[in-house]
Amino acid sequence: MSESSIKNIRNGVIASVVAGIILLLIPTVRGYAASALDWVWSGVKWLWNSLFESYSFSGWFLLVIFVLAIIGFLTIFFAIKSNFDVPEHSDYKEDSIFNIKWCWSWSGHEITNLWCFCPSCDATLVYDDSSKNSFYEPTVTHFICENCSNTVKGTITGGAKSYALGAVRREIGRRIRTGEYEH
Ligand SMILES: [Zn+2]
Questions:
Q1: Ligand 1 geometric centre to CA of 114 (Å)
Q2: Ligand 1 centroid vs 40 CA: distance in angstroms?
């Protein structure tokens, strides 16, 4: 017989023996599983009985469960509510920032419709973030009043229009945090 066929026979014998042992064990395994399930079930029953049938235990236990449920409910309620809440500073919608008048609305805690107006004539300002004297100078955004002979009413240094609006948003946030906006 060649070496490979000896190996095949050996593997076959091992497989049969393993299969036989498993088959032998199955009723035993089933028995163990059944008794383990019984044990778990009797534990659950014991726990249930001691919690709800023993008179002194069930009263405070139900009370604790009730209180925990109320706390859980209130936590969820306030978490949801805060998302729809009108912020405390929702009346703060206008201020003079960087020497010009800014107006905005609130959408929850987000600032929306932020734009600026002329401090002298209240006209809507236009922006210009394209003019730069030299390459080395920082980008600036000018806010210009067409109604006041195209004069620059305000300038924000450091970036283009979106940067300027971000700077104003940050300034609004700062005034809210410090309470400065109330004065
Ligand atoms: Zn003006």
A1: 18
A2: 82
One-letter amino acid for residue 68 of the chain:
L
The SS3 of residue 41 is helix
- 114 near 127, Cβ under 8 Å? no
Q: Which residues surround ligand 1, an ion (CB under 5 A)?
A: 118, 120-121, 123, 145, 147-148
DSSP tag of 3: H
Measuring CA to CA, how many Å separate 112 from each of 52, 81, 127, 175? 56, 21, 18, 17
CA of 18 to the centre of ligand 1 (A): 95
Burial class (CB in 10 A: 0-12, 13-18, 19+), 97: middle
Separation between Cα atoms, residue 161 and residue 140, nearest integer Å: 8
Instruction: Tell me, in angstroms, the distance from the centre of ligand 1 to residue 98's CA.
Output: 15
Q: Mean pLDDT per 10-residue run, the chain (183 residues)? A: 73 82 75 84 83 65 88 87 73 94 92 96 95 77 95 93 96 94 76
